């Protein structure tokens, strides 16, 4: 029996799958060790490694389709793989099968500058796209932190720090090329179509956005682009309480300030950032902000925001226009994951993800902090507060089963707290493996039945990323 | 046999359906004449009147569900009806059946000011909602022109003049309560949930938005709201050519001006508006614009826009801050339908609807104007040019079969021209009855098959608004 060279797991279906692939598709593109290393090295979740039996590296949609047809015929599970930066175990091969690594399909296609759109293959990451766009005056703003592939971001309905202004993947995908479980190739908005809006038929694009590889393999995405703002200003402000920080956020939005980023960090997170990046922000609830626009409009945005924060007891309002200071500030925010890990060297991290209506944020954050203390857990909080979305970055010793269990119970309590406040168990990470039971609580049995019906229609043999979402 | 009292059509299923309803649900809420009058009086499309057999006026979701169950059991078609302002024949009862008029469910529910959301029943129109919100500092910006019901707008994925800044219904519906064909009640994002974003499971909300009553009956919509801007400024500018007007639009968007409305009117439309409203705009391609923001930011927005239009040969740039002048300007734009009709008294109008990438607008508009002249047709053009979306308001004599035929052929050519330019046959009116063949051309047979599969899953007896979309 073949076994995984990295984690020494033995897989029942391994020989059968590899043999099936070799017999029908030749050796080319089939790799085991590489796949497993890829998954081990890149999957940032704490979910247990579940390696596939085989990995294929198709180079074009026709190859993806041909390989899917083979899987379909042999009833082999298909697990689409982008960069493996997902957080909810979405790329684990629970039933073995074939991992479709799409990294070799990495071309940026069909940039239309005047139309503010571009089409990318699934191996293109957001940073690669923005590098490509560098001289065009355009950019793609959705930023989940990791340098994820854009089709991977579409598949989990990702968002991140800029969503309050530019929306999530849901609002920014115009069209998708998708290979279905049986190898059929479809274009969700019609081949090559890219109007900025449409009322033509069912919204298939947004059925596949967020479907986490369970309905098909995304092989192309047409995305909306935005003009790079003339100027950007960043700011930091400290608050006496979570309530004061959230009140400021609501008032900034009410005032119509077109804020580009408004990020909350709790006292523990700020402390971690200070230590990790040798900074000296006051260790209190803090907002990191960013404004995009013309120089003149920025002055006004900053001044309105400063006034609002001051009225809410905010202090140490510091703003920065120069690239270097701004970069330093956002590096601190983007390093939150590593700053959290540094709180307990040798530990692993898992980032929770809930989203509630804005007005419920103070209560849920306060209750969650009490919960963390009560259960002796390390979980600094950072959040995209303009959307009501936040994370606890849980730092835990994976070899301490008691702590692992307490983290697990804590995250379930947190999700249920969000559900009790009209919110969702995941604002941007997706359901994957970890939140299937919570999804059922969130939607109720009838909506789940509808989702299961859609899944059964598009993937009657349950081959597409089985065991995820539903 | 019963017959329709307004158009004298006789309906085969009439007696059977009415009898079925009377036997199982009593007389209450069952009406024929009223339904037919409602459809005759309100359906603004040129599609032939297709009255239902029965109309019911449910008062709550439980009644909708109970009535749907009766229809399901007796295999009676279900046609959801909001205000009948749709333009593609979406409420015609092609196979007879039961019209669900939702006008008695007209409550605004659960306004959450701090969270910028509200839930409405399906009888609430956009104007009624904005009246309700008057003292809150909030508004719902999606504006298709007609005072449509908000659930009707959701069902056709409506948009209109403000979409360039605030998005369409797709981006502004957070949750839907839906009654399926068999009477099952679901909440697309889970009961009562209203986070501003979510990655939890398939995006059912946007599967029902735009489904035009073919997948279920919308009985509640939770909508995003926006702060009313501190100030608004409107402007008008005349251009030497369509190209110059569109170039200005692209450059305004590239410059990051957060423009709220940017509406194109061709020379014929401007002429019609001048006559109808006693105005004296130059009879050339024209942009009507609106800016939302703080007084200070407006100054800058207007000044950048004015410079861009001047560089493109725009002239007579006139802007208005006072409510009265602004209202006059937008009344002219909103009266475009009636101004067009007044070009040929006694005629009827049909508004086409296509959407293309911005850069293709000049070519498609120029070719379309040539087509109109060549075929001796009256079709002033107005468009939401920031989205690449425009309409020809076709004014025709319904009793001239040759002209009716020429209009039909023209609209098909226009749609195919949009398809050839990577666009869509409908940007905001929907497919309804009139564009089913075009939809097939737009999406291709495979995507159509997926849509048919979804329809068969959710409505296996094909009772929901049969004969529409697919």
Automatic annotation (TrEMBL), chains A, B:
Pfam families documented for this protein: FAD-oxidase_C, FAD_binding_4
Keyword DNA damage: no
A molecular-function term among this protein's GO annotations: D-lactate dehydrogenase (cytochrome) activity
Subcellular location: Mitochondrion
InterPro entries assigned: FAD-bd_oxidored_4_C, FAD-bd_PCMH, FAD-bd_PCMH-like_sf, FAD-bd_PCMH_sub2, FAD-linked_Oxase-like_C, Oxid_FAD_bind_N, Vanillyl_alc_oxidase_C-sub2
Record's protein name: Probable D-lactate dehydrogenase, mitochondrial
Function: Involved in D-lactate, but not L-lactate catabolic process.
GO-annotated biological processes: lactate catabolic process
Cofactor field: FAD
Top EC class for this record: oxidoreductase
Keywords of the record: FAD, Flavoprotein, Mitochondrion, Oxidoreductase, Transit peptide
Family note: Belongs to the FAD-binding oxidoreductase/transferase type 4 family.
EC number: 1.1.2.4
GO cellular component labels: mitochondrion
All residue ranges annotated as the FAD-binding PCMH-type domain in the record: 47-228
Coiled coil: none
Source taxon at top rank: Eukaryota
SUPFAM superfamilies named among the record's database cross-references: FAD-binding/transporter-associated domain-like, FAD-linked oxidases, C-terminal domain
